[in-house]
Every structure is written in C-alpha cells, then in structure tokens.
Amino acid sequence: MPNVPLQQKILTVVQDYKAIKSNRISLRVDEKVRQIQTGSNGWILGYNMTTRMTGWFPQEVVQEDDQESHEAPNGSPQ
C-alpha cells in the first residue's frame, strides 16, 4: 500500500530541507508541519504551518512534537 492515512500530527522540523521537485516543500529548522499522510518510502505529506504550503518531505528532517496535540491532555480545563 503506497500511502497510509494517519491521524494528523504536528511535527517540528529539526533539519533544513530544500525542495527540488514541484510536489515537495522546503522546510526550515523549528517550523511546524501538520502531517497529512505518510508514504511507504520514507516521505511524509504535510502542511507547513509557517509558509502555508503543502507537499512531500523526507521523514528524517522532522520529529513528532509531543507538546503540540489537537487533543486536550487529561486534567486540562475544558
């Protein structure tokens, strides 16, 4: 299966990446990216929350941001 839909996660860029194809997006360290889906080849489709661009990038340039979640943690006021 080439693409697997995922629950959208917020990722933090840990290494700059320069896009070289039109379906990819450039990323800079500390930018936040919303993960849309992942491919079976080590690439992630995501939305760059800074540049508002959507495209593919290699998974090794980002890490999951545990502090940024779309769900309120237990014990948070509602």
From TrEMBL:
Key word Electron transport present: no
What SUPFAM superfamilies does the entry give? SH3-domain
Keyword line: SH3 domain
Top-level taxon of origin: Eukaryota
Q: Where is the SH3 domain?
A: 6-67
Q: Where, by residue number, does the polypeptide cross the bilayer?
A: none
Per its UniProt record, what InterPro entries does this chain match? SH3-like_dom_sf, SH3_domain
Q: What is this protein called?
A: SH3 domain-containing protein
Q: Which organism is it from?
A: Plectus sambesii
